[in-house]
């Protein structure tokens, strides 16, 4: 029995945590490695093992703020009970040791499989291993975790043919290695936090390296990224995004040589990542043929390259190693065979497995693991003994995704049974992104039906029930479909000063929702105060002289509601509309031929529409400003020379529409440059009718007029 040495935190961090992080996470490690226990620990008592488990768990707790391993140890702490359970009793520990020992033996044999396949192919083609291919074999061995010495021991079984050795590769220039490593580490951590791979700063902004010179687009998206970080809850995710935003502003938004250097560094990093895989393909087949070429081009795109650059890099690497790029087999193959286009048969010729294997990889990229597993099985049936590793890798990946999908479906079933549709929506969103065709458990609806059910449940009490309902006398599809997509907004928003802060409270029909609270600035813009799951929030940064206006938005399952404001007036009691009254009466045609902007329909006299008054109209810094009324998203500004406009649809006046977003961006309503002076200006509020028609107030409020000198 191997004795158990005392627990050394520093040694554990360097030997265990570093290896697990490099390998890709705790899912690729076993419990004995995680808790630093010898595999043949059958002689250890349960008390000794429990003490070691507590020591390791305590070490994880102390490392939760470690700059490099914080994300890894946070996950280990959360999964401690599950991962340590098989080690707590002697019986389960022995069974787990037998399972882990078999798994390690299989993994050790798999380390040599890629290398042995490459050596076998070279011996078949050359009668031995050319000396110039040895360096490439060492790189292939490194893909399986083998050292150069282990590769050399394997090569002793074969004759090495003398030949020239390739020249060393040139090292491209770029940003400093320290900064590039910091950016890569932050992008990796952000990808782990958000569940998506983000290879470059360009990808973080939704761009590619070809956009390095588009300074305006980069600056616009950097501003959006900054606002997104400000709206996030305080925590590690927000801190990582803030740091990435700093790199975006300092590297990309300045443009010029620094952005070009980063783009070149992305290409250089992708080239180095693709180099051993291209060399392995060229080493065996002398060229990049169809499936390998498509797979490596896709890898290049996942590393942050655009398609054209990925193809150029592959061509350069292939030429560097003395090969070419094409869809035909290598020259040394005795006969050309056309890959099957329909369902291939086992006797369809060599490499008949390529087409279904390519389809399986494409299915995985599209989020269809069941289809990928079926195609991988079809490719396995056509395998001629040359694709074992590739087929097993794709099949294992498809099975892993299906296993994750099964776990997510169990979460969905439990959440549906408990009525926790917000939790169900999060799991369903992951299924929709990763496993569209994963079969649901018995008794569960299909994926789309479950998503629709969760949306209806979160939309509020006014949502129509599932199933057919009686149709109204007049069909109106848009109003019936709208409640199913957006949750009901909060109600009764109040803001009061208390102990040097402003306390905002509201009511909500959603028991489990996130709320975003914003404060209106003196210039009419909005600032996000914070996010909470409670129906109460304190704003310690509010101005002391007066209570500002606040807006609250409910977010359920990632879908935001309409905003509710603290200065909103109580809604008037609904009055029944006349039975066949038309929505609007079109205004008479203008009597002058002067072209004017299209006018909205004025409100019909019998239509129960409330148009709030526009107040405090002023001319400030070349813009018309006023107090924007609550629950209004559009207004009409009307200007007339020689007197005040008679109505919002005055045919002798000039009118234009202004949205609240445009108003906030411009800091007011901008007047046309060719507007003559003096002129009378008036502003009227607008509403949207049930059918989406823009309805205009029938007249101006007395406080909505302004004379421009």
UniProtKB/TrEMBL annotation:
Domain SaeA fourth Fn3-like: 624-684
Compositionally biased region (Pro residues): 470-490, 571-604
Compositionally biased intervals (Basic and acidic residues): 531-541
Bias (Low complexity): 328-353, 457-469
Gene3D superfamilies in the record: Immunoglobulins
Region (Disordered): 324-353, 455-497, 513-541, 563-604
GO biological process, one term: carbohydrate metabolic process
Name assigned to this protein: SaeA fourth Fn3-like domain-containing protein
Organism from which the protein derives: Tsukamurella tyrosinosolvens
Organism ancestry: Bacteria, Bacillati, Actinomycetota, Actinomycetes, Mycobacteriales
């Amino acid at each position: 029995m191997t004795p158990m040495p005392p627990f050394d935190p520093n040694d554990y961090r360097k030997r265990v945590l570093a290896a697990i992080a490099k390998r890709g996470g705790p899912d690729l490690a076993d419990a004995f490695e995680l808790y630093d226990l010898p595999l043949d620990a059958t002689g250890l008592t349960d008390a000794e093992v429990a003490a070691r488990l507590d020591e390791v768990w305590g070490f994880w707790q102390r490392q939760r703020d470690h700059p490099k391993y914080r994300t890894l140890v946070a996950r280990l702490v959360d999964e401690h009970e599950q991962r340590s359970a098989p080690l707590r009793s002697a019986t389960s520990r022995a069974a787990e040791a037998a399972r882990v020992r078999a798994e390690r033996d299989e993994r050790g044999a798999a380390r040599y499989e890629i290398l042995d396949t490459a050596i076998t192919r070279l011996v078949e083609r050359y009668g031995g291993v050319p000396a110039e291919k040895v360096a490439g074999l060492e790189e292939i061995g490194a893909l399986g975790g083998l050292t150069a010495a282990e590769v050399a021991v394997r090569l002793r079984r074969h004759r090495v043919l003398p030949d020239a050795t390739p020249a060393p590769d040139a090292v491209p220039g770029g940003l400093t290695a320290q900064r590039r490593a910091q950016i890569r580490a932050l992008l990796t951590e952000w990808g782990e936090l958000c569940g998506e791979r983000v290879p470059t700063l360009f990808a973080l902004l939704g761009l590619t390296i070809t956009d390095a010179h588009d300074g305006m687009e980069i600056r616009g998206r950097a501003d959006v990224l900054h606002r997104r970080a400000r709206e996030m809850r305080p925590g590690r995710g927000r801190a990582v995004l803030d740091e990435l935003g700093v790199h975006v502003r300092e590297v990309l938004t300045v443009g010029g040589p620094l952005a070009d250097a980063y783009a070149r560094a992305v290409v250089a990093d992708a080239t180095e990542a693709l180099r051993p895989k291209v060399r392995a393909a060229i080493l065996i087949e002398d060229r990049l043929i169809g499936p390998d070429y498509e797979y490596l081009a896709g890898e290049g795109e996942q590393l942050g390259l655009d398609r054209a650059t990925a193809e150029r890099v592959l061509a350069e690497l292939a030429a560097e190693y003395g090969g070419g790029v094409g869809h035909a087999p290598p020259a040394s193959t005795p006969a050309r065979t056309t890959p099957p286009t329909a369902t291939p048969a086992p006797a369809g010729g060599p490499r008949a497995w390529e087409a279904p294997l390519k389809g399986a990889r494409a299915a995985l990229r599209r989020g269809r693991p069941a289809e990928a597993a079926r195609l991988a099985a079809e490719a396995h049936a056509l395998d001629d003994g040359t694709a074992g590793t590739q087929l097993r890798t794709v099949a294992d990946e498809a099975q892993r995704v299906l296993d994750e999908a099964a776990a997510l479906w169990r979460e969905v079933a439990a959440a549906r049974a408990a009525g926790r549709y917000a939790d169900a929506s999060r799991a369903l969103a992951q299924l929709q992104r990763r496993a569209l065709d994963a079969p649901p458990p018995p008794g569960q609806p299909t994926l789309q039906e479950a998503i629709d059910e969760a949306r209806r449940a979160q939309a509020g009490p006014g949502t129509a029930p599932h199933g057919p309902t009686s149709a109204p006398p007049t069909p109106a599809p848009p109003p019936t479909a709208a409640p199913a997509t957006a949750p009901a907004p909060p109600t009764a928003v109040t803001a009061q000063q208390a102990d040097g802060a402003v306390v905002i409270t509201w009511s909500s029909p959603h028991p489990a929702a996130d709320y975003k609270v914003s404060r209106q600035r003196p210039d009419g813009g909005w600032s996000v105060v914070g996010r909470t799951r409670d129906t109460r929030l304190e704003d310690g940064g509010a101005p002391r002289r007066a209570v500002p206006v606040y807006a609250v938005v409910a977010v359920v399952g990632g879908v935001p509601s309409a905003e509710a404001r603290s200065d909103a007036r109580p809604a008037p009691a609904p009055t029944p509309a006349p039975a066949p009254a038309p929505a609007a009466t079109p205004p008479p045609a203008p009597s002058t031929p002067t072209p004017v902007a299209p006018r909205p329909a004025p409100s019909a006299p019998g239509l129960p529409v409330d148009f709030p008054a526009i107040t405090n109209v002023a001319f400030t810094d070349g813009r018309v400003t006023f107090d924007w009324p609550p629950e209004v998203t559009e207004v009409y500004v009307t200007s007339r020379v020689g007197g005040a406009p008679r109505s919002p649809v005055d045919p002798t006046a000039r009118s234009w529409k202004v949205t609240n977003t445009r108003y906030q961006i411009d800091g007011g309503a901008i007047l046309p440059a060719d507007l003559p002076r003096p002129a009378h200006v008036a502003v009227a509020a607008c509403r949207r009718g049930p059918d989406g028609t823009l309805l205009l107030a029938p007249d101006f409020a007395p406080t909505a007029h302004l004379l421009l000198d």
